[in-house]
Structures
1.
Amino acid sequence: MQSSKNVKYTSEENPSFVKKKILMSMYAIFGATGIYLWWLLYIKLHGLSSWLTHELFQIEKGSHFGASIEFFFYDTPKVMMLLFLVVFGVGIIRSFFTPEKTSAILSGKSEFAGNILAALLGIVTPFCSCSAVPLFIGFVTAGVPLGVTFSFLIAAPMVNEIALGLLYALLGWEIAAIYMGTGLFIAVFAGWIIGKLGLEKYIEQWVKNINADAGAKSEIKITWHDRIVYGWDAVKEIIGRVWIYVILGIAIGAVIHGYIPEKVMASFMGNKSWWSVPLAVGMGIPMYSNAAGIIPVVEALLGKGAALGTVLAFMMSVIALSFPEMVILRKVLKPRLIGVFIGVVGGGILIVGYLFNLVI
Amino acid sequence: MDIKILGPGCAKCKKVEKTVKKVVSETDSNAIVEKVTDLMEIATYGVISTPAVIVDGKLKCSGKVPGKNDIRKWLKS
């Protein structure tokens, strides 16, 4: 590919620079067309699901089964399409943040201000639970206080940016803001409390003995092309991994939507009974789903009149406290510290649940 | 040339190992590929996000699966 005649190279505009510019404009054109087509399809989904259910499959309107099937046919493409857009956008944003940078920012930060910063960075820093251990070690050896490290480790799964995007799209900005605000609140205070308790002695000894001064020198550079590739990789990787949870979540949501009467829902997930919040948390902790899968269930629960606080508590305990992550963290933390971690986070979730049931 | 792949053994780490080994065999490079799974050893490299790739002591990639073109570039230099 060579330049057209009207392009003149200056000393900085060598051919590869021009090539990059053309690549960027191609991305912009494809991106804009893609979003337009996406939108055209998205606004047609409601009519399409209704037609599929009632015309094609001849399922009676107003029946339980019809309501369930229509919910399923509407939500599956809708959530998948939203997921696609959200994951891609989040992937681009995340390419600006790396755990290495985050660790450098947090190193030596004071308590509280450090906890707040750590919780905020926890939302945007890319982090997979399988690298929880290297990350924990990296933070601790870089001089990030234990409590601040925990604020990060709690916020990262708890305030899941994909859940945030889906909540915003499906249920409005108020619910998304409440979810983010309360998640940050729990991460900041749980981390702060863990910091105050002085539990450094419950970190496994070998972690403290590590000397990473002679670490490998980093030669990583990143361009806009890399960021777009990063976003696209995130789409392939995340959707490839979560689609089954999303479909299961929607199927559960569909059953709730079609079959469970509002009275039954109000009796055990309403705000009248004191035991509904702890029950939701108790059910949520051993459940392992990811954020994208739990949102359709949340949508259906709220639609049936379940109390917001109870639903929030349920969602947070499913996402934030997972058994596999505890097993991984056990390699660097003694059981006592893991116990404190579960206790403090679970307690925070309970408080949030009760608070919202009281207020709304 | 000495290539180290750092990762405790999650799906992504295995993919990196496979891709790197494939590219190395395709380009008949003399690079030796070594997998580092021990968490203690990973930590001593100062790597925070796995999977990571270290070529001749220099960190080339961290927290993601590198593309084949990237790997070819590392092998050339």
2.
Amino acid sequence: MSKQISQIATLKIQRGSDRNAPQWQTYEVPFEPGQSVLDGLRWLRIHKDPTLAVRFSCINANACKECMIQLDGDTVYACTARLEPRAMTLTPLPNKKLIRDLVTEIAPPSERFGK
Amino acid sequence: MTPDPIAIDTDVLVIGSGAAGMYAAIEAARNGAHVLLADRSLIGRGGATVMAQMTVACALGEETPDTWQDHYADTIAAGRGLCDEALAQLLCEDAPDCIRELDHWGVGWARKDGHITATMAPGHDRPRCVYVDFINTGPAVSKTLRTAMARNPSIRKAGDLCIVDLVVGDGEVTGAVAYHLGTGAPVVIAAKATVLATGGLTRLYRRNSASANMGGDGYALALRAGATLIDMEFVQFFPIGHLAPRLVGMDPIMWDPFRYKLGGRLLNGRMEEFTSRYGSDEDGKYVLTRDLATYAIIKEVEAGRGSPHGGAYLSFEHCSVAALRAAFGPVIDRLAENHIDLTRMPVEVAPIAHYHMGGVKVDATMATDVPGLYAAGEVVGGANGANRLSGNAITEALVFGRRAGRSAAAMAKHKARPTVRLRDSIAALDLVRSGMGDRDRVIIADMIAHLQAAMADGVGPIRTRDTLMRSRLAMVDLKGNLSAQPPGRPGAFDLERLDWFDLRNMLVVADAVATAAHRRLESRGAHQREDFPETLPQWQAHLAVKQERLGLGISGAPEGSKWWLHEQTN
């Protein structure tokens, strides 16, 4: 295996279900260059905090388009944004109803449960 | 403390919104049924359909003369003697009709000279696979079906709705217990007929080409409802899944369409062509079937001739920039963003869990052996035997989805008002509403990773009795460590609880795959037993798995194959 040297990203993540009273949690995530922000969030769920809520389905293909979040204030797909060896701030989409942590209501109204 | 569940009635409940589920919903609604389409994720976004890169097999015969019988012959040959002939016939015979309906709905099949064009794929005797450029087939199919559904007011759609169990009353499926992921609210759905369209089980493996929601939910739901699963030992590994360098924003099976269009060379770590060692020359063309290519790559790695990350090289270095761009346009830019220049470097590829041939036993109307329950798409077992022909997955999703929707609607017409009795649903409701679970004991997401490792290491494309035993023991341990109830209490988007429900299902399904793989004492297609390397005529038989009181029961092995003697003497 040609292992590249592991680096550390510092992810500052908005938590909770109340946009007006956000809680912040900061994690250090080891990664190899090329890995995605979603890779980092999935690593956190396995190794640090399984309650961390993030919406994703296809993991790597950028086909499902479910993993939209904001990185440092810009809207990105977590599966294509890359981890970097610096502080990175992750927040839910600002213009959608907040459900929990990084998860927002992004389904069209006709495709939501409860109609 | 325990809230009343939200109650919903429908004629037809469809679980899963890939191509099979959406087509089933459309067809059931066209036949007069009110439909509820439920998906644990967003509608039409998760699952396998949206991930399909290119080919859809169908004997249209617009460019090259073709008949469904020719497609059928190739499907049967690829299945290594184990296809359910009625299902394979349905798949091939109904395919042109479904493909043309999608064309009518504007999917945008690639055309040449006014005809829908078809490409050659491994295992086919002529160009037979239609597609949407550029590697956009799956997303285009999903979007087209979503749009077609939106035109029908009889279809209600419910995303973020996780089905926990089917409800069975007096031997019949009467609906399902679910919870809404967004709020944690318990839900009881009463349905006259239910269609499982939940897709496959590739999430059971460490390296897979699946969406996160393909943990095999449907197989577990079917087993617990009393239905039969067949051919569970046949998991298809896609031989040339992307391995290195790290590539984001692309499906790991992306090299398939590259090979369709450009050929490419499969090389070992010494940059030698090697598939001829395993009985098949490639000669720059893409002809090797998936089971043989998977076997060849694994064996080459075992012999110490793998690529640096433990796979093979795939090279397009002989292709010009112009040829690459003509074939794949914008995809070449995405590769450049990942620092991959195919004219200057090979990539590394390795087998990756891709598709499940086995699944729920159905007849040619898509009815399971439990009244009220139908299945469609990848969750169905039998049509593809021991090895699926390239391009048949989306085809079966469309054909079986449409057929299941029609059958479910017909059944619903003959039934009175749907009802779910409390006594049939209370056990599942108790799980959904439970609020006593311990939160800090173990990380279930980590247990899932351990299960994926056990499946990859012991129940992969090449198995032996010893690897299977080790994996089955690991599963027993994991099962022992899973709490009786989900952690925490119902709340908004609680992924830890979802992990619990997922692992509950994944353990049952992994057990079914390993049990069947352990029982089949031969090698055939996607099931290669190193301790039983021959393909044996008496094993041209389907193994069936059912839930029994004390665990899974397995039947269908040939007379005289006394596995217990083997266990004692080997």
